[in-house]
Amino acid sequence: MSSIVDPRSLLYRHLTPEDAQALAAETLRTCDDGELYMQFMASEAFGFDDGRLKTADYSRDAGFGLRGVSGEMTGFAHANEISAKAIRRAGETLQLLDPATGPKAGPPAKSNRHLYTDASPLDLVGFGEKVKLLETIDAAARARDPRVAQVSASLSGSWSVVEIVRPDGFIATDVRPLVRLSVSIVAESNGRRETGSFGMGGRWLYDDLFRPENWNRAIDGALAQALTNLESIDAPAGEMTVIMAPGWPGVILHEAVGHGLEGDFNRKGTSAFAGRIGERVAAPGVTIVDDGSIADRRGSLSVDDEGTPTQETVLIEDGILKGYMHDRLNARLMGVEPTGNGRRENYAHAPMPRMTNTFMRAGEQDPAELLSGVKKGIYTKNFGGGQVDIVSGKFVFSCTEAYMVENGKLGAPIKGATIIGDGPSVLTRVTGIGNDLELDRGIGVCGKGGQSVPAGVGQPTLVVEGLTVGGTA
């Protein structure tokens, strides 16, 4: 596929670009807004476990989603056949909508920006080389330490060609690569087994993942976490000061705060942040942005799934709520501009407001000084799964690597710690912001409304007072 001169040809096998424009105009003529969204997708995944290749999956798919919007009503139909007949049949669904009575929504701004390569990662490296990489990682990890009991490694890649055709003649095209490498290690000592993991990826080709310094970094990271957890003691419980490491721990902001700042929840008044623009919602110094325009990042898009160019959107600035993330529908109904956050899992789903790369900006404090100022608490380096209630912002997160903090120094690693709190109040309890902002390594997947999309998170070192820690001690 990487040798295809025009990736759009994968979409136009049974109709022409002119046909698509005419069909969009015909099927959406009575709607306020909407689009014909066409997509070709190819993906693969390799899983190496217990010293052998366990999975090798490859799939390809193509189809379209036709969405019409009239007022607050949305009609949507999709099919895995891109043809005039199928699109017209989908258009019959939109006849159930009330005809638009107001002015038509204008098209998105035009953009020819490309934040990542058009090339497909799938075909530039052979099947044998991909399997060989996983074999090499498995052997290298086992040779690192006699306590390594089990190694799992996975490699995945996808390539997607998207074209958005609107009834007003607007067309946007985006070609999206995505790759990821993950390593998980189980270490065993004296009958005790603990796990560590490390992953990386982004909107690029496989080249970086095949560099020895990168896959060795993944092995070292997973092994270090597993060996640390072998030494862990039961986590304490109670209300205490929590220091969060930079980078991936920003996932707690994504879940506890980010979803509550998406436009649909605020338009409907179901978010804890609804109607609070201009109010203080966080401690001074807390600035949170969503930025889908960072080159090569996992959560980035040259244009969103409605054709709007992505941008940096300041959500909270110096503790004051400044705005929300919007798709076209919610932006129009709330009287503001779209922010490039209309996203969908694929052609079979309608878009909704979603995060891209959401992170807290750096402060001015030295991370070592922040640590030295904590007499007693815990330091969280990595988080696993979490649960969040969007309406209240209440969350529970499990720590996969954490340490005691005593008299300003890291103490023993702890096991079984969970962080419990709520998004609106956790932001008000931030008492220290490091100067060491990091974005995650490109592993995030965000779920909402039954749809999953790649997303990025990040933060500097943070000190948060009075969080509830659930422990096992």
Automatic annotation (TrEMBL):
Residue intervals of the Metalloprotease TldD/E central domain: 123-229
Annotated Metalloprotease TldD/E N-terminal domain residues: 35-90
Which InterPro entries does the record cross-reference, listed alphabetically?
Answer: Metalloprtase-TldD/E_C, Metalloprtase-TldD/E_cen_dom, Metalloprtase-TldD/E_N, Peptidase_U62_metallo, TldD, TldD/PmbA_N, TldD/PmbA_sf
Metalloprotease TldD/E C-terminal domain residues: 238-471
For this UniProt record, give its keywords in alphabetical order, as a comma-separated list.
Answer: Hydrolase, Metalloprotease, Protease
Signal peptide extent: none
Pfam families registered for this protein in UniProt: PmbA_TldD_1st, PmbA_TldD_2nd, PmbA_TldD_3rd
Q: Gene3D superfamilies per the record?
A: PmbA/TldD superfamily
Q: Which family does it belong to?
A: Belongs to the peptidase U62 family.
PANTHER family reported for this sequence: METALLOPROTEASE TLDD (PTHR30624:SF4), UNCHARACTERIZED PROTEIN TLDD AND PMBA (PTHR30624)
Entry protein name: Metalloprotease TldD
List the gene name. tldD
